[in-house]
Amino acid sequence: MSGSTFGTIFKLTSFGESHGPAIGGVVEGCPAGLKLDTMAVQEELDRRRPGTTPLGTPRQESDTVEILSGVFGGTTLGTPIGFIIRNKDARSGDYDHLKDAFRPGHADRTWEAKFGLRDHRGGGRASARETAVRVAAGAIARQLLATAGVAVHGWVSQVGTERLTVPYQNLRLDQVYGNDVRCPDRDMAERMAALIAQVRAEGDTLGGRISCVAQGVPAGLGEPVFDKLHADLGKAMFSINAVKGVEFGSGFDAAAMRGSAHNDAFVERGGAIGTATNRSGGVQGGISNGEDILFDVAFKPVSTLMRPQTTLDREGREVVLEGKGRHDPCVVPRAVPIVEAMCCLVLADHLLRQRAARL
Q: What's the pLDDT tens digit per position in 284-327?
């Protein structure tokens, strides 16, 4: 097994390397009859693509998606949806110095330990370039979820030491993509942008946090015991490059709380049962409870620095790597559509699984 297929009913198989001719994917399990807006798919890819913001990598890729199968006359056929995204601005020569050296913090050493060889050009298959495939597939999943009234919103809630603490209910989530940082609070976005610019000038990098909320999710999604909804969402988030932590609802803060304070009390809301606090993040016992599903994803600082770093080569000799290539000083702003996409893939899969769970 290559680990390149994700999902049970709504499945994505991803292929391609960062500096190959193209990356792409095959989506299986999408029901026939979905009116697919390909312009909306492209719009989501545009939000992730490189070269669109002065805060990110200068690599220029159009990230134009080409749908090869599974759609006719703008409607899904129920057959596999195949698509490719061509790589047009790869500069493989930028990575010649990495043929025999392992970059600190990267997958170079572990990849070679597993396969015995690696594609050193931009990280090959381990590159975040692959996530464009997930965004395209997630955009299809998002349109399927919309037919069930489900909406997914992500936003940058932390860059380095700058953290947004405003409750999401008080944010304009429709304005997330109105600035380069993808933070819906204008003042905080400016502070985050200034910090990224400062650290970039120093040749260093930053990490951060993305928050995500899924609204309109019906109660009952999730497949105990191993495919709990938050377990599958956690796996999806941890599969994204640079992710180091995921927490739902109260998350790690729950470790310091008492049960009497943490338990979500049930309340009546407009004829439906809800909870007063939603500390569970919308999932209880691995099954959605009908509340908003809320989680945070923590990203480490980008490992490629624009300054010398000491590392080892294949022979175990100490060498100095000079910072080269085109890289993001902080990956978090461009990762927002990736987090949204992976959330959409999980929810679409569990929505279809739930339809098969009972008469």
A: 999 999 999 999 999 999 887 777 777 667 777 777 777 666 67
Length of the chain: 359
Residue 59: strand, helix, or coil:
coil
Residue labelled with tokens 């913090």: 105
Bridge-based pairing state of the strands 283-284 and 151-159? unpaired
5-355: CATH topology: Chorismate synthase, AroC fold (3.60.150)
d(CA 31, CA 48): 26
Handedness of CA 52, 56, 60, 63 (dihedral sign): negative
| pTM (two decimals) | 0.91
Bridge-partner residues for 268, per DSSP? 273
CA distance 296 to 232: 14
d(CA 334, CA 206): 13
- What tokens were used for 199? 């650290």
The more confident residue out of 251 and 106 is 251
Question: Mind listing the pLDDT tens digit for each residue in 15-59?
Answer: 998 888 899 999 999 999 999 999 999 999 999 987 666 676 665
Domain ranges across the chain: 5-355
Amino acid at 194: A
Q: Which residues contact 214 (CB under 8 A, 6 or more apart)?
A: 150, 151, 152, 282, 292, 293, 343, 347
- When computed from its CA atoms, the radius of gyration of the chain, rounded to whole angstroms, is 21
Tokens found for residue 12: 């994505």
Residue 112 confidence (pLDDT): 79
Place of tokens 């080409």: 66
Model pLDDT for residues 221-233, shown as the tens digit of each residue: 999 999 999 999 9
Amino acid at position 294, single letter: L
